[in-house]
Amino acid sequence: MATIAATDVKKLRDQTGAGMMDCKTALEEAGGNFDEATTILRKKGLASAAKKAGRATSEGLIGHLVSADRSKGILVEVNCESDFVARTDAFQELVRDVLAAIDSAGDAATESWLKDSKGPVHLRVAEGIGKLGENMAVPRFVRYTGHGYIGHYIHMGGKIGVQVEFGGVPPALTAREEFAMLVKEIAMQIAAANPAYVSRSAVPVDILEKERAIYRAQMESSGKPAGVIDKIIEGKLGSFYQQVVLPDQASIRDPKMTVADVLASATKALGVPVTVNRFARLKVGEAAL
Q: Is residue 206 part of a domain?
């Protein structure tokens, strides 16, 4: 059996977060080979992960990453069992590593890639489980690239994350304070008001028909003429849009304005027609509901 130096045990512990005796045993089993020892510990970590797999993961953090030119952005939800673990340096390092893996994978980063038991995210999460002793999961991520300017807003210390992509943004505009304020305002709007759609046209037809059917059922016994009922239904749809469509929502900064008004005002001030292409809002634990 190979003689294992204490410094090697410490090095492996620092790299993996496993216990000292586990590291020593793994190195002995691997004949002093660090890569083989790490694989042995990973296998133990995976076994540990399997035992913990049934435990609820409703805590965690929303991680975020954006490229220097703001053309690429990622949001990811990484879950654990307790807020205490979510605040540890080791868990936050896990979040950063998951973000890096998604960024490195690029277009190959799909849902099936994320769930691959032999993939980089699954293996890295298994290491985290072995190190921190809680069940963990990465249920979802959002990646935007190449279609506009990416803004981020992280709320409640990482419990809510927003990613918003703006169109019509020339490079010169990105340095202006007014634009930076607009990005922050729209992202905060999404965090606070939780819209579901970027425009009225983005609302699926079946959703609209379901709403109309509900409103019509509410009016069945009203005795009003069909034409009047139709107008009332369209009015109710207007209220529905105000709840779920971003441009129709009342601005959280000035409720007398809609978000569409805010964008129009910004376009006038900036001299460029800035639009919101798409957005995502992730809240910790939401995917498990």
A: no
281, 160: one domain: yes
- What residues pair up with 76 in beta bridges, in sequence order? 63, 141
Number of domains in the chain: 2
Q: Edge to edge, what strands does the sheet with 275-283 contain?
A: 149-155, 160-167, 275-283
Does 63 share its domain with 174? yes
Distance CA 219, CA 230 (A): 10
> Which residues are CB-neighbours of 267 under 8 A, at least 6 positions away?
273, 274
For 281, the domain range is 59-197+271-288
Q: Is the pTM of this model over 0.70?
A: yes
pLDDT at 91 over 70: yes
Rounded to whole angstroms, the Cα distance separating 13 from 22 reads: 9
What tens digit of pLDDT does each residue of 126-164 get? 999 988 989 999 999 999 998 999 999 999 999 999 999
From CA 183, how far away is CA 151, in angstroms rounded? 6
CATH number for the domain spanning 122: value is: 3.30.479.20
Per residue in 187-196, pLDDT (tens digit) is 999 999 999 9
